[in-house]
Amino acid sequence: MTRITTPFRFESTAAEVAEGIDLSGRRAIVTGGASGIGVETARALAGAGAEVTLAVRNPDAGAPVAADITASTGNPGVHVAPLDLADRASIAAFVAGWRGPLHVLVNNAGVMACPETHTREGWELQFATNHLGHFALATGLHRALAAGAAATGEARVVAVSSSALFRSAVVFDDLHFERRPYDPWSAYGQSKTANVLFAVGATTRWATEGITANALMPGAIETKLQRHVGGLRSRQSLRKTTEQGASMSVLLATSPLLKGIGGRYFADNQEAVVVPEAPADLTGVAAHALDPEAAGRLWLVSAELLS
User: What is the pTM of this model?
Assistant: First the structure.
């Protein structure tokens, strides 16, 4: 399997990655599109001509963001729709309300290292939001993605993961910390590993329909994601702007270099290399995050939990 390399680097921005890309006639969804890298991901996709829906918990907060993106890109096709990834009814309503094909789904929203919290189903919140919510959304929109791929030759799912995946594999025997002490970083790491395994599993199941999925590490970016841990703690030399962090999502969503490619993990706009431990520069990926057997098991477990 040939490693994918691109002309873009650490400092590349979403706008630079999208330059020259024409997404006219394409439809995209960005979860968490009202803040952080979600805004700049949506802006770049809209700037390339896509119709973009910001799927957000608070539509009132999303409306001015959509207006700003329209003003900066000249694209009137920027919409806002309510979506709470920790609420199965909200996900079902969003899916039921979607009409027509879908070409790009960016699973961007998430929570990080929050205090121990469980959903009404008893699911640990980070796993429920970061993985199960996006799993339910993607599988619920599978037919729309297939329709998008049938019309244009491909549809893509982008999973925003993190180098925190090195902190934990998916612990199938105790997904929700019922038998082990809760650790916010282990829980976050498990959910981020799950994001990559989803990309592996989705590509395995859907590639024959023209649907591929890839995962990424956006980099160290100061956003609301760090609200539970007192802000960004990485070295200054590793920090990125939101425009730089969004470049990864836009690359995986749009680059011709990724056509037909799925089940991979990217960092600093290059496919990451499997390494035994977390590297200091936040690149690299753990073998457990790309394990096809774990991906298959996670898919079945997730589908059963949501059944």
Answer: 0.95
